[in-house]
């Protein structure tokens, strides 16, 4: 897979390193000569250019890329790169970094963004996830398809504890994609049971999040006499 990354700062270089380790082709683009540090990621291609300019993106052969990542520290630049990548070059997958949470509403398919990654939101979500059980935590927003990646740790007293995945009437427009149980990562099957302490990852429509949280966090009624 060929990936172009706009922004060769610490974030861009870190992403490039991970992708290269996984066997992908990576092109790093930055207009600042001081950011071109070939020795830090020698396996990547490097281009000194303004990623907001069509001529630069032509030189980068963006039409050959499977993914474009707009990873600069400037939200305006990331939006422009995303829009050009999607509309001018038809890049199948565009991922954009959101630096200011106030701008998050702009990072949607209208600007060519398939996945918006807000570092402040993600960090706060991870903090919430670490301290909350039974509360739905939004980890990531997918612009294309209007869905979110959400997480909930199943509480001990949940009515669904011990229930098989296939026996649960999940809300519409939701999909259980992963169960994290201790150090294990499980791809859920209908026969898998839900256990207290399981971290459940869902892709869900925003309108279904409250319904999903209510379903998973519902308490058993005390039936004692």
UniProtKB/TrEMBL annotation:
Q: Which GO terms describe its cellular component?
A: plasma membrane
Keyword field:
Ion transport, NAD, Potassium, Potassium transport, Transport
Q: What Gene3D superfamilies would the database entry show?
A: NAD(P)-binding Rossmann-like Domain (3.40.50.720), Regulator of K+ conductance, C-terminal domain (3.30.70.1450)
Q: What InterPro entries is this protein classified in?
A: K_uptake_TrkA, NAD(P)-bd_dom_sf, RCK_C, RCK_C_sf, RCK_N, Trk_Ktr_HKT_K-transport
Q: Which SUPFAM superfamilies match?
A: NAD(P)-binding Rossmann-fold domains (SSF51735), TrkA C-terminal domain-like (SSF116726)
User: What protein name applies here?
Assistant: Trk system potassium uptake protein TrkA
Q: Where is the RCK N-terminal domain?
A: 1-117
């Amino acid at each position: 897979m060929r990936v172009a990354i706009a922004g060769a700062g610490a974030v861009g270089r870190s992403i490039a390193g991970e992708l290269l380790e996984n066997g992908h082709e990576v092109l790093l683009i930055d207009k600042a000569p001081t950011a071109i540090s070939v020795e830090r990621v020698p396996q990547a291609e490097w281009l000194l250019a303004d990623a907001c300019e069509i001529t630069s993106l032509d030189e980068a052969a963006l039409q050959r890329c499977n993914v474009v990542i707009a990873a600069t520290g400037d939200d305006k630049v990331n939006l422009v790169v995303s829009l050009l990548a999607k509309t001018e070059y038809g890049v199948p997958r565009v991922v954009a970094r959101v630096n200011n949470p106030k701008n998050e509403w702009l990072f949607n398919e209208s600007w060519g963004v398939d996945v918006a990654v807000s570092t402040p939101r993600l960090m706060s979500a991870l903090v919430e996830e670490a301290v909350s059980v039974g509360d739905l935590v939004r980890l990531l927003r997918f612009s294309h398809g209007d869905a979110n990646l959400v997480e909930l740790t199943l509480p001990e007293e949940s009515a669904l504890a011990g229930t098989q995945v296939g026996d649960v009437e999940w809300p519409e427009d939701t999909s259980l994609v992963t169960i994290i149980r201790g150090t294990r990562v499980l791809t859920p099957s209908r026969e898998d049971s839900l256990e207290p302490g399981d971290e459940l990852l869902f892709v869900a429509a925003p309108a279904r999040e409250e319904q999903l949280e209510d379903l998973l966090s519902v308490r058993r009624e005390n039936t004692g006499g």
